[in-house]
Specification:
By secondary structure, the chain is mostly beta strands. It contains three helices and 13 strands, in the order ααβαββββββββββββ.
């Protein structure tokens, strides 16, 4: 019994000694010391040693490279030619016409008409433009004289210079008119006041019975063929880049209203008077060139 107790005590002591001999884990701390070195540069003025020494620039031997580097091509600003700077377009409108000779004959009414035309313009300075225009007018009639239907101011027989008889038939002042104008326009913002000279020709027709084989039975026309000189002035307003409206006044001087026929030496109006012809027009111009 005592022996067993002794063995138990020794075994217990030996186990306690073994557990006491176990090594513990230690924590190791590592420290790193970083040292940063920097360099500081100080500037100091140094006397130049190249005084009196001429240094020539390097020469480029290759001529092709030299041309490409040092020679710059000039770029010229192309100027517009005459036709490229020319503006052109079409126009149309309405108008009223008054002729003093028509008032003396029969009527004091204003003639109503329509017109179509072409125009060309070119700037001659920053604000001045030169314009050329050509128009065709068609004027409606304000009176009709027909000897077959009524007694008129012109009814009766007339005789040529070689005494050939002519019998008046009919006449009305419905006619075509051809007009050309040269204008100078001043451009201010959207307004263009203008003034210019004009030339026109009216195609009036008067019908007579003329002799044929010594018998007075052939109707023939006597027409106007004179050019008349006049002037015009007005105002143009630009609505957009393509469209403008125009209002103008025209006046022409008619020296002796003349109606003639190439086959007969005769003129019904044997006057030395100068008649005035006045027009008021309102039109719309369209710019084709813009």
């Amino acid at each position: 019994m005592i022996f067993r107790i002794l063995i138990f005590i020794l075994t217990t002591l030996s186990l306690h000694g073994l557990s006491a001999q176990k090594k513990k884990t230690d924590t190791v701390f590592v420290y790193e010391k970083v040292i940063v070195y920097d360099t500081v540069y100080l500037e100091k003025a140094v006397a130049s040693r190249t005084k009196g020494i001429q240094i020539s620039p390097p020469k480029i031997k290759n001529q092709f490279i030299e041309n490409r580097i040092f020679k710059v091509r000039r770029t010229r600003t192309e100027r517009k030619t005459f036709f490229q700077s020319l503006q052109y377009g079409v126009e149309g409108g309405i108008g009223f016409k008054n002729s003093s000779w028509a008032r003396a004959l029969h009527s004091d009414k204003l003639q109503f008409g329509e017109n179509l035309g072409l125009w060309f313009s070119k700037k001659v300075s920053s604000n001045l433009l030169l314009m050329v225009s050509a128009n065709i007018y068609r004027w409606n009639s304000t009176f009709d004289l027909d000897a077959n239907e009524e007694e008129t101011y012109l009814n009766g027989f007339y005789f040529t210079k070689d005494n050939q008889p002519l019998l008046f038939q009919r006449f009305k002042n419905k006619h075509f008119e051809y007009t050309g104008q040269l204008k100078i326009l001043y451009e201010w913002k959207k307004f263009r006041p203008f003034a210019g000279f004009a030339v026109n020709k009216n195609s009036y027709k008067m019908q007579f019975l003329v002799p044929e084989n010594q018998i007075l039975n052939k109707p023939d026309d006597f027409k106007s063929d004179k050019l008349n000189i006049g002037f015009s002035f007005g105002l143009q307003y630009q609505i957009s880049t393509k469209i403008s409206v125009t209002a103008d006044y025209e006046q022409f001087s008619l020296n002796n209203l003349s109606l003639k026929n190439s086959s007969f030496d005769f003129d019904i109006f044997k006057t030395n008077n100068t008649f005035a012809e006045r027009k008021l027009n309102l039109g719309v111009a369209y710019f084709i060139s813009r």
